[in-house]
Each structure stands twice: as C-alpha cells, then as structure tokens.
Amino acid sequence: MADIAERIMDIIAKEAKLDRARLTLDTRLDELKIESLDLVQILFAIEDQFDVYVPYNDESYKLETLRDVVDGVNRLIAEKQAEATGKG
Amino acid sequence: MHRVAITGLGCISALGNDVASFWSALKAGQSGIGPVVAVPHQHLNIKIAAEVKNFDPAQHFDEKRLLLLDRFSQFALLAAREAVKASGISFKGDLGRETAVIIGTGAGGMNTLEDAYARLHGHNGSSSRQIPLTIPRLMVSAAASHVTMEFGVTGPSFAVSSACSSANHAIGEAFWMVKTGRARAALAGGSEACITLGTMKAWEALRVLAPDTCRPFSGGRKGMVLGEGGGVAVLERMEDARARGAVILAELAGFGMTSDAGDIVQPSDAGAAGAMSKAMQDGQIDPGDVGYVNAHGTGTMANDATETRALKLAFGNHVRKLMISSTKSMHGHVLGGAGAIELVAATMAVHEGVIPPTANYQRPDPACDLDYVPGTAREARVDAALSNSFAFGGLNAVLALKRAA
C-alpha cells in the first residue's frame, strides 16, 4: 500500500510539475492548484499504471487530501480484484 | 449592404433525418441520447451518445457515389438537399455562379481516417495498402465540395474548421458574403460524424463526457454527450427572396466572433460575451429586443457556469428576461456541426414562436441562475434570438436572428 502512495505522489509531481518533496499524504489538493489539463494527465497516468478506471464526477469519492486520492485508488484496485475473483 | 433571409433549412441528427422530425422532438423535449450502437460497449467506459438513427446511406446515394462519401459528407448532402428543396431556390443561370457553399466541420472524415488506421495497424493483420479514395473522403473540405457538385453551384466554396464553432463560423462568413454582395446566395452549415471508437476513447480521456445524459445548466450535470449530424441553411438576399415569393423563416441579421487568447480547453466569459455583443451590434439589435438564446450549453461544469456569466456580461439586467435553452440536451454535442443544427432550432423558434426546452434538467445550480426553459417548450413570440457556439481553444462565434417582418 505504501508503494501505491509513493507511486501516486510521483505521478502527481511529474504531471503537475510540482516539487516531489512538497507532497505528503496530508497535502491538500486545493493547495496544489493543479490545472485541469494536468489533472486529466494525472488521471490518465493513474489509470495506465494501476490498470483501473477512475470514474468521472463520482460523488461517492470525497477528495480533499492526497491520502483521499491514495485511498480512492486502493478502493478501485480492490473493487477490480473483487470483480475478477467474483467472475472466477 | 443587403439584408439576408433564411429561406430553407435541412438537418439530420439523433432526433430524426429531417427538420420536421427534429423540430417536433425538440418541442416535445424528447432526447435522442441513448446507448451507443456504432461502437462495441466492451471498449467503452462512457456508453452513451446521440447517434443518427434509421439512416441507410444506400437509400440516398448510389453505390458509385457512396464510395466517395464519408459519413460527414453524407450528412451535409442530406441536409443541403432538404434545405434547397424547402427553399424552392433554383441555381440555374447567373445565381449558380454567384452562390457560395461554406460547410464547417471539426474533424472531417473521421470514420474514413479510423478505418484507414485500423487497416494499417489493426489486430486482424495489418496491410500497407490503403483504399484509394481515403484522401478525398477524409479531407475536411470534402462535404463542401460534394454540396457544390450536387447543385452545380460554382461560387466561392471552402470548409471552415474551428472545433465546436466550425458551423457558426461557416454560416457567419457565408452571411457576411451575402450581406456585402460578395455572393448572391449561400448554402451554409456544418456536419460532423465522429462517433467512432477512437474519438469516443479520446473524449473519454479528456474527462468531459457524461456517463448518464446531458443536463445543461442543471445541478448534478456531469458533462457533455457526443452527437452527430449535419445542418444546412439557404441564405439569400432579402429582396431576392421576396421577389420570388419565398417563405422567409427568419432574417439572419448579425454575426460576431472573438477569440479568448486564453486556454486551449477552459472557456472565458469575456470572450463569449464579446462575441454575443458583436453579433448584436452587427445586426443592429438592441440587447433588450433579444428574447431567446440557443446556448452553447454543453453540460460541462465549466462551460455552463462560464456561459451564464457571459450572458450576464452581454445582456446586463435584461438577462433576467431572457429565455435560454440548450438543445444539446436532446441532439447531443454535434461538435463542428452543432451551430448548424442549433441554427435550425433557433430559426424555428423565431419563426413559430415556440422556445425549445433544456431537457434532462434536474435542479438549480447556484452558478447557473437564469431561465433555462427546463423540461417543457414555451410559446413565446420573440423579435430576436442568438445562437452561441464556443470552441475549445477559445474561438467564439455567435449568430443573431430577427423574426421576419
């Protein structure tokens, strides 16, 4: 799980051209002032690296901090694995 | 300077293959959005679109001609045939040499292009040999060329491409040609046919497509829905139209355009407002005389809030008396063809005195606090109307209509 958090922060730093050292799990997303085009690049990279689909405008995700983002990606990965197992 | 009459309209969209079916669906608030048919769902996260239905190209074009026609050219031709027939105009003699054809499209022959790539890179064995007619089918000006050939008109003709403003730029330029005497009449419109796997995936990746439906200006809106289709208007000098006793559906009175010079995807309220103001100035229309605006209204969070601010900038206090609707809620976002299809809606609204609604509206959004005519059409006689198109890259184009006297 820690590895996933590191990878997500690497992606955000790279795509939004941010100082990686600035990012912690407690960093608030609104502080980062990520531009919309950088955001779609971040989502693309997350989908690509973790092989998940990040739903669009899903109100069940409350994204305020980077921890929320990491939790959200973990949830998507878990859902995908459950679905794969379910299909057996 | 000449006044310019709209004497014929044609369109094909998710709401039907002619103006009558389109207009009756709009008045009923019926949406043409549904599950995508053209693209297999297993490849898609967003599985809805506003596709043209019950359209068999072989019923409209012979086999030899069809080889030359990408779907976007087919749509333009169908719309042009309907518009010309409805107007009763004849291009025999001098008029054919003095008639312009300007057709907007964002992407041109996307189906042809995608088929060509599939052939080149496809999973079923690649082929380095392309279908010989690939180039003439996919070029963005193909639809304009085919419309000239259909009617034998030999005046100025070209395509206009400015993403989602393409059709309005095309119609606006044609309008100015007729107004200033550079052409005597014009066939002007737009066409788009890019509901393909590649285009759907690319729009999905941009994260502006709604998974449920298109809810312009509504709280809970989730984005736009891709549409397809085409529209064409016959424009001619008012005095010519009157002399031959044509039905004048509306006067095309003004055109305004600006560029935001801001962002490649984020819209600007000042740029959009500037285009609306310029269209009204060009048409010598007092903002207080405008009763209806066919909004760009894509259903994205950004567009609808920005367009609302822009309307306030352009209209001042009168904005509270405006009826504003986005017919994209029903025919989807036809991209480079959108302005043409929406001109049909706006012209019919002025002509018949019925304002088409914004369908799928659920609840107010504090950022969108105007009268969007939610759900149900309204009978209202309006003296003037605007039709807005705002493109990615900040290219804004607005048409202004007056009710025929």
Please supply descriptive tags for the structure shown above.
heterodimer, A: 88 residues, mainly alpha, Non-ribosomal Peptide Synthetase Peptidyl Carrier Protein, Chain A, 62% helix, B: 405 residues, Peroxisomal Thiolase, Chain A, domain 1, two-stranded antiparallel sheet
Tell me about this structure.
The complex is a heterodimer of chains A (88) and B (405). Chain A has 88 residues and is mainly alpha-helical. Chain A has a single domain (2-87), classed as ACP-like (Non-ribosomal Peptide Synthetase Peptidyl Carrier Protein, Chain A), CATH 1.10.1200.10. Chain A has four helices and no strands. The longest helix of chain A has 22 residues, at 66-87. The model of chain A has no long low-confidence stretch (mean pLDDT 88). Chain B is globular and about 65 Å long. Chain B has one domain: Peroxisomal Thiolase, Chain A, domain 1. By secondary structure, chain B is an alpha/beta fold.
Q: How many H/I helices of chain B?
A: 14
Order of helices and strands of chain A: HHHH
What is the ordering of alpha helices and beta strands of chain B?
A: EHEEHHHEHHHEHEHEHEHEHEHHEEEE
* Morphology of chain A: globular
Number of helices of chain A: 4
Q: Beta-strand percentage of chain B?
A: 15-25%
